Inverse folding.
């Protein structure tokens, strides 16, 4: 695919003549330009970037591979996958000596299972004979792909989650559990590993899910319950080789409403702390909370920070992931125990410009920097919400996939990808031309201070161990290619 | 552990202490003007729902079926906010939980439905097939 087959805006150059950029990509099928929504994303050791995304229907999965050998991204390969393949999480991992891509996530509207699909980095060589294996979800008539942030470890353990809706009384359930590498089937198959699965009670209040592993012995799901952020899962003392016991924790501060969270654990630190990002759109307390929770004493935070001000409006409410029941972007941790977080909001009001905020903290809870990407011509129909964060191998570059932006309001929305320096530099108040509009990547001085968060043990969601899931029949998704839409043949910016 | 600083900011946590005094350990002197607060457990009715019943609710497609005899909605719940209160008799700061009745977001969660005159939980309702 020739250079320029999608829109690229250059932000500038950094140390070692590295180039930083923004990119957006739409596909063209049958001569018609299609909306795209970027979701899972990862970066390999050669700085190739892989993005999983969906088309305008929100269900048909695609993967694009971007090379940047000349310092700017070019579309190197692409594949269309049918709509049983999840796109919520894309993880590059070493499968017995071969580096492959694995897509995972909750079941979608076209599927009965949470499928896991792997493909080699060329996006044309099948893994597992092209089979997508899955876990059958035995509840709910409807479901949503907005709730499928999974976590895949370097050893092939997948923490999965899914959310199902019922067609009456607004009830839904969240389910989660563990998958193993062995053939991507339920772990009892060919393995001594005996994982646990869990399910919430049917209710209206639980929502959103982002699966995580917390230390060796605890797995779970971060999301929301009613007005509050919630964590549920199972705990045991034998490395998740037994079902163990269930647990629930909630977070609370005055004026929480629609608050929800996402969580990542850092096993490099003592007590395997988790970092809990919470977005709270309550009109009297528009804010983002960020807490460090020790695994061995979860109700006693090590610290809690609160970010507010800066004309923050509706944090966590933009986008299909960040909508009122969606899941915030999962934080990431670098080798020096710094944590990167990201969230979406609008500037000042519901009709304000779309904004993605990115912040870096150290493990002591000291803010290192906070920057924002603001689409100047954004409208409320955009979904400018960060979905995935990744660092390059040298940890100098931070990649952010944004679900959808629409700088030119006459055009369809497009997934966006940003590469910025991980040290927070290269900010500017200058407008950058992009996609028929402009954006600004600049520092943002939020009010950042100690926050209050009551973390309490709970049983409200009725989280319980479940055996209602079973291994799904292997599915073989169809693959085809797509044409990227040639929005412009030139680099902008 | 929870702390209050000289400005009255509460709660602060151990990480807030070590941000100022990185080597601080329990038993060491706190930063100037800081005090440790004696913690108290959350009241047992924390997060308890307050419900309202509606008999013969208006049907809503995909939400409330035709002929539904009744719904029980959680309109609010009991929460508590932490405060620190100084006790001059003991010269200690103590954590006090102030009750806060918090409204659920609308539409209110339906926590039970009536079938044949009996209130059923969601699980009991689903078990009817």
């Amino acid at each position: 695919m020739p250079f320029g087959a999608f829109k690229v805006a250059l932000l500038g150059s950094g140390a070692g003549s590295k180039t930083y950029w923004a990119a957006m990509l739409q596909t063209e099928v049958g001569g018609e330009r299609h909306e795209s929504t970027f979701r899972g994303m990862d970066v390999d050791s050669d700085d190739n970037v892989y993005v999983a995304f969906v088309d305008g229907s929100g269900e048909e999965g695609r993967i694009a591979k971007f090379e940047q050998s000349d310092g700017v991204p070019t579309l190197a390969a692409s594949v269309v996958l049918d709509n049983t393949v999840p796109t919520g999480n894309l993880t590059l991992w070493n499968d017995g000596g071969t580096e492959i891509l694995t897509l995972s996530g909750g079941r979608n509207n076209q599927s009965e299972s949470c499928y896991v699909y792997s493909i080699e980095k060329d996006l044309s060589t099948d893994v597992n004979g092209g089979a997508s294996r899955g876990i059958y979800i035995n509840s709910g008539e409807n479901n949503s792909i907005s709730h499928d942030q999974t976590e895949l470890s370097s050893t092939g353990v997948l923490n999965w989650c899914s959310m199902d809706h019922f067609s009456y009384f607004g009830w839904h359930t969240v389910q989660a559990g563990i998958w193993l590498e062995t053939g991507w089937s339920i772990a009892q198959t060919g393995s001594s590993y005996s994982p646990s699965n869990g399910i919430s009670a049917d209710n209206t209040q639980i929502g959103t899910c982002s699966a995580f592993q917390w230390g060796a012995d605890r797995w779970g799901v971060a999301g929301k319950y009613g007005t509050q952020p919630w964590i549920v899962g199972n705990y045991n003392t034998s490395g998740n080789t037994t079902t163990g016991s269930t647990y629930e924790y909630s977070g609370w501060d005055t004026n929480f409403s629609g608050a929800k969270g996402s969580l990542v654990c850092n096993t490099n630190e003592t007590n395997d702390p988790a970092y809990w990002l919470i977005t709270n759109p309550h009109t009297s307390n528009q804010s983002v909370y960020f807490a460090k929770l020790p695994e061995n004493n979860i109700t006693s935070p090590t610290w809690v920070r609160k970010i507010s001000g800066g004309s923050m409006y509706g944090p966590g409410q933009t986008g299909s992931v960040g909508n009122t029941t969606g899941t915030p972007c999962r934080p990431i941790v670098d080798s020096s125990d710094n944590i990167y977080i990201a969230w979406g909001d609008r500037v000042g009001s519901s009709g304000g410009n779309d904004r993605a905020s990115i912040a870096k903290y150290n493990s002591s809870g000291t803010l290192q920097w906070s920057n924002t990407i603001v689409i100047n011509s954004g409208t409320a129909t955009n979904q400018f919400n960060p979905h995935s964060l990744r660092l390059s191998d040298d940890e100098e570059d931070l990649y952010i996939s944004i679900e959808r932006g629409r700088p030119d309001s006459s055009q369809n929305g497009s997934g966006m990808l940003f590469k910025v320096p991980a040290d927070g530099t290269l900010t500017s108040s200058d407008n950058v031309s992009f996609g028929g509009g402009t954006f600004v990547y600049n520092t943002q001085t939020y009010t950042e201070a100690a926050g209050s968060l009551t973390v309490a043990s709970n049983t409200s969601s009725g989280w319980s161990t479940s055996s209602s899931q079973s291994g799904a029949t292997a599915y073989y998704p169809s693959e085809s290619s797509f044409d990227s839409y040639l929005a412009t043949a030139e680099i902008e910016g | 552990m929870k702390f209050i600083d000289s400005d009255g900011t509460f709660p602060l946590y151990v990480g807030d202490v070590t941000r100022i005094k990185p080597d601080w350990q329990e038993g060491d002197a706190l930063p100037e003007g800081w005090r440790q607060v004696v913690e108290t457990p959350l009241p047992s009715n924390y997060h308890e729902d307050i419900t309202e019943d509606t008999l013969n609710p208006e049907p809503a497609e995909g939400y409330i079926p035709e002929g539904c005899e009744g719904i029980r909605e959680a309109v609010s719940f009991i929460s508590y906010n932490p405060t620190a209160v100084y006790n001059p008799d003991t010269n200690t700061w103590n954590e006090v939980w102030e009750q806060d009745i918090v409204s659920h977001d609308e539409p209110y969660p339906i926590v039970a439905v009536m079938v044949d005159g009996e209130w059923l939980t969601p699980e009991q309702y689903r078990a009817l097939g």
